[in-house]
Amino acid sequence: MAWLSRQFSTRVIVLIPIAIAINIVLGFTVQKVLNLPIYLDSIGTILVGVLAGPIAGAVTGAASNLIWQYAPVIGPGSNIGPFAITAAVIGLLAGLWGQLGVYKSRPAQGVRLWLAIAIGVAAPALLILPIINNPAYTDPNVGGYPSWVYWAAVLIAAMFALVLAAVAYVRRDSAAVWVALAGAATGIVAAVVSAPIAAIVYGGVMGSGTDLLVAALRQGGSDVYHASLGQGLFSDPIDKTITSFVVFLVVLGLSRRFLARFPMGERLTDTASA
Amino acid sequence: MPTGAYRRLNPATKLALALAEAVLALGVRGWSGPLVVIAVCVGVTIAARIARRSVLLVLASIPLLVSIILVNTFLYPGATDPIVQLGPFRPTWTGLAAALQATLRVVAFGFSVVVLILTTEPDHLIADLERRGLGRRAAFVVGATLRAIPRTTQRAAQITEAQRARALDTEGRLWRRVRGILPLAGPLVFGALTDVEEQTMALEARAFSAPGRRTVLRVFPDSATQRVVRWAALLGALALLASSIAGVLEAIP
Amino acid sequence: MSLVLAGVRYRYAGSRTDALDRIDLAVPSGSVTGLVGPNEAGKSTICLVAAGLAPATIGGRLEGVVSIDGLESSSARPHELAQRCGILFQNPATQLSGTAPTVWEEVAFGPRNLALPVDDVVDRVTDALAALGIESLAERDPTRLSGGQAQLVALAGILALRPALVILDEPTSQLDPQGTRMVGEALRRLVRENRTAILVVEHKTALLDQLADRVAVVDQGRLIREGPTDEVLSDPALSEHGVEPPPRVRVRSALAGAGLRTPREADVLIAELTR
Prior knowledge:
The structure holds 3 protein chains of 3 kinds.
Chain A: H1 2-7, H2 10-33, H3 43-52, H4 54-70, H5 84-99, H6 110-132, H7 135-138, H8 148-171, H9 175-201, H10 211-219, H11 224-253, H12 256-260
Helix pairs in contact in A: 2-3, 2-4, 3-4, 3-5, 3-11, 4-5, 5-9, 6-8, 6-9, 8-9, 9-11, 10-11
Chain B: H1 5-8, H2 11-27, H3 32-47, H4 51-58, H5 62-74, H6 93-119, H7 122-131, H8 136-164, H9 174-193, H10 196-205, H11 224-246
Chain C: E1 3-11, E2 20-27, E3 32-36, H1 43-50, H2 53-56, E4 61-68, E5 71-72, H3 78-84, E6 85-88, H4 92-95, H5 103-107, H6 109-113, H7 118-131, H8 147-159, E7 165-169, H9 177-194, E8 197-201, H10 205-211, E9 214-219, E10 222-228, H11 229-234, H12 247-257, H13 264-273
Parallel strand pairs in C: 3-8, 3-9, 6-7, 7-8
Antiparallel strand pairs in C: 1-2, 1-4, 4-5, 9-10
Helix pairs in contact in C: 7-8
């Protein structure tokens, strides 16, 4: 119980509204301005999860969606309310990664750095292979995906690996690898949780450009659920990886004095950094 | 029903009705749930003279509705009853039915949200919930968020203005827009975090973490009837949701 | 004594050096003590320690004794401290709760937190608004006030808790001369009518000259000297510690530098001219 009440100390209670406002304002701006499959509406959620813990993160996520849905002026046009469950899961996972020390800076050079990068590149490949080789996912006749999805997934994984390697190399920080993997994993889970909601409530679409992807997947033979899942797996891992990187860069930029006062502060700093 | 009657209901009643309507609109399979909700909401909006504003706000969902109708009518997996063959396009009746049901769900939910927003002051709702036992911390979070949104929007606009001068804006070609968004996130987050320490100290210095329930300044009128309506609405909606999931309501369209 | 700091050493959380080194300070009730010194000297840290916010709210390590209206800060909970000591910071925007639709409700924030009876809350808010002369702002939106008005509202919010000790960290830095005057008058009234003890950090030594009974000079976390206002502010060594003497002292030393001695009447005249 003490662990729970520490996650909601006055400082965290001050942070949460700020985080929710960031979620909503960024999410709204991105929606208005870009037509890309990224949302950037979870930066606050992941930040709270990392700084204050999983329960606080989950609360931030759920509250963001509900307040956005029912907020005067911004609310009525959006359909983000039912996805509060997804947002809560994202916050929960962020707290988990924070506890595991994923967001702690780990300066590395040479061999250690390249080893970490190699793991980061290999991990998605190892994950994708059994999925791709499983006919349940790739045989259109069984409600799986059309064959072009196979190539699209490989391409995305390759781009992911490239960006990951670039960031880790430029910043000389192997933590970039873990942050990217944590972000991708969060994105995958988010897609899996959102797909049934989209399929059951919204007829499988979201009202944005990615609906073209849904249409293409259905054209290729996917059922409603798998088409929604495919759309989610396309957008969410990218979005959550970018978001995780942003949170990582933010945490790097915060002073030790500031971080030390948060419940999870110690896991983000080590004795070497000033 | 006079125009102010719905507005004068206790905020918790309006909230309970909105939640029950949301559950009914989104969770109960078939046509009846959403249709009942739409009927109730339209009735309330007409009586409360907010019909025109409500419809305008609900219309904001049109892009989503168009997408739902097109994608599902023309590309519903497993449907074998075409309406007509238009070249390569084969809209199906099953698909159309699914599309219309989903459309009704979205419209019904939208109406329930709009009715709550247009008839209830957020501060009143939070105050009433706090009187009923919602903790001061939850009340603070919701209240502070609602006021933080306009402030953060302003800050975002300022950052964007400053960046426009450095050609990192969010207008123009796609790549420029992407390059404009990410540099917005960093300063926005950092700027917002700088106040956390002082705000925390200010709250503690004003006894925010004292135990017990905060003094209630304003009591909104309530009645036994409203209490019954609240419980009936919420429990009824949950019961219908459970029945729908259990497949008990298959017979009802 | 409303405030006693005895042998106080303080280090911020996550910091490797002490911010305060053996501070001994006492502020009796019904008196005003000014705190001056260069930037980063530790004046704000003293305020946080004196208010009990350090270490209770912001962590860190505190040695020595801090006694606020008889209550030792190390064993007290933040809300207990809040009833004995109020603290006002520079930036009014972060001190307002950000959840109140009107100034009246904003000022009521503190008393409400203590779960006081409604009548009590109303009395305190009325008194606080009257003490600062801002009754006319009661129905205004706190987010639409000028800097000076917001600062007065923040001060009212603190006074509503009826603390025995009020600490102010550069309260007038964002105020125009009229706002500064209003704050000064309000503080004087507090001291006179409620025997409140006041500790105020100020760069405007002219204000301290009129308001404070004693002044303490802080530099690099240490208390350099402490004594009656006139003595301390007339000390020529003051400028070594980044403190500008008040106009009265500057005029006097300028006249002295020109070879003119100033009789007592001239002092009064100068004080009048430089107010």
